[in-house]
Amino acid sequence: MNTEVSTWLARDPDPVTREELQRLIDTNDRDALEDRFSSRLAFGTAGLRGIVGAGPNRMNRLVIQETALGLGKYLLATFSDAASRGVVIGYDGRPDSSQFARDAAAMLASLGIKVYLTEKVAPTPLVAFGVRHLGTAAGIVVTASHNPPAYNGFKVYWDNGAQIIPPHDSGISAQIDIAATEPLPVMSMEDAEQQGYLTWLGTDFYNIYRHTLNSNPILSNHTKPSSISLAYTAMHGVGAEMAEQLLLDHGFTKVFSVKAQREPDGTFPTVSFPNPEEPGAMDMVIAEAKANNAMLACANDPDADRFAVAVRTHDGRYKMLTGDQVGVLLGYYLLNRERPKKMLVGTTIVSSSLLKRIAEAVGAGFYQTLTGFKWLTNVAMQKQTNDSQFLFAYEEALGYTVGQTVWDKDGLSALVAFAQMTAELTAQGKTVWDQLEGIYREHGFYLNAQRSIALDPNSPPLGDRLRAEQPNTIANRSVVCVEDLKTSQRQYADGKVEAIDLPSSDVLIYWLDDDSRVVVRPSGTEPKLKCYYEVVERMEREDTMEHIQQRAAEAMDDLITKHQASLPK
Question: Fold for domain 210-320?
Answer without folding.
Answer: Alpha-D-Glucose-1,6-Bisphosphate; Chain A, domain 3 (3.40.120)
